[in-house]
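README: folding subset

This subset contains proteins for which both the sequence and a predicted structure token string are available. Records are stored as plain text. Below is the entry for fatty acid amide hydrolase (494 residues), shown exactly as it appears on disk.
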Amino acid sequence: MAPPFSARIQLLLLRAVGFLIGLIGQAARAFGGPKFGSRTTGPVNEPLLLLSAIQLAKLIRQRKVKCIDVVQAYINRIKDVNPMINGIVKYRFEAAKKEAHAVDQRLSEKLEDESTLEKKWPFLGVPLTVKEAFQLQGMPNSSGLVNRRDAISKTDATVVALLKKAGAIPIGITNCSELCMWYESSNKIYGRSNNPYDLQHIVGGSSGGEGCTLAAACSVIGVGSDIGGSIRMPAFFNGIFGHKPSPGNLTWSEEFVGLYFQCCMEICLTHWTIRNLNKLGSYHICLFLYLFYKVVGHLENILGASVQHVKLKEMKYSFQLWITMMSTKGHDGKERVKFVDLLGDHGKPINPLWELIKWCLGLSVYTIPSIGLALFEEKLKYNKEKYKKFKAVEESLHKELVEMLGDDGVFLYPSHPTVAPKHHVPLTRPFNFAYTGVFNALGLPVTQCPLGLNAKGLPVGIQVVAGPFNDHLTLAVAQYLEKSFGGWVCPGKV
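--- output ---
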């Protein structure tokens, strides 16, 4: 039976809108781009900026370097580089320097020995940046939504409070996509962030401001979120480490929290104890057919790991599985808030078609990805029949992966079809996030691991996946690959 005439008209309209958005992306690619003399950020001239969080904290505890000198070094770097990458959107310099002086004052009193300091404050004096969508007391908390541009955090998010308790010093908040629902970090309040390895390329999203900030040596620890790859895509595009924990490791209010680091060991220190890497020789390494054979060869030949190529037919439904997850009711049994309501900041829902017209006239306060998502939202949402169908696929794939991996296996999977694309390209490739989003749907821990740079100087990397609550395995493999392939590479000449 043919659909009603009105439904066919609506479908044709949606297709036309999709085509229009694609054309907008192509046009933006041709004419858009940052206007800088150099396509990469400047060199790092301060040795402190090349040290890991663990190394910095140790030097501060040992009183070999002053905390204020570390914080000031990062402030100077931010002033030099941030105008190019637009990663940090609000500074906290004066408060950070005051807190750094307080650390130095306490250390000068010698009230605790080094061992006690390490146990109480493992990140003592280490600079920290936080995604703007997270609460950091006294700082903006708009999530890139113009309607919330005056929102100021009155408290700290749990993960931020824990890092501050561990001694970290926040120096600023970082950019994100509008309402954290797109994989290019750009919004109408703060503008667009640029990749430090090539300013004409994206930083990813939604936590892209964190990704480029750490990659450009403007911070050493970053807090982001990951509901569909928002940690792992920016980590991949910017050549740093990112970790999406197993669901349940955090409270529901922060279920999608993740962390960024230049060095893998920092993630391990924050959450888990790494097992002896010699045990990797008996680990069962599973590989998707077309992945990085260099990595596999290294694990196989050097460690003697057992490697298998596997074809998981149900992975072709990655996008559908993510939509199924997003169609699931919340823990309270209620329907999730509609995106059009969120864009209205829980006030009057926006009219996406009207906003599209306004956008074409340069009058809308919303970004085109948000308008597009609002237009297609109801079409993307599954009815009971489709939900049931893909929920069964998800459960089947989850069971297959969990049985295959056990408690001693990892699965290596591409992070994205390409390295960081140029600005606006995601508009023409909106579903590529499914390479990361599928593991949110499956509820598995994933560590994004950098593997250096390609011939054009852009970062490459790989996702390391394990069974539920085996985060220590993904981190162990990532740590080994960091030692073997070099990990983070500073953009520009050092």
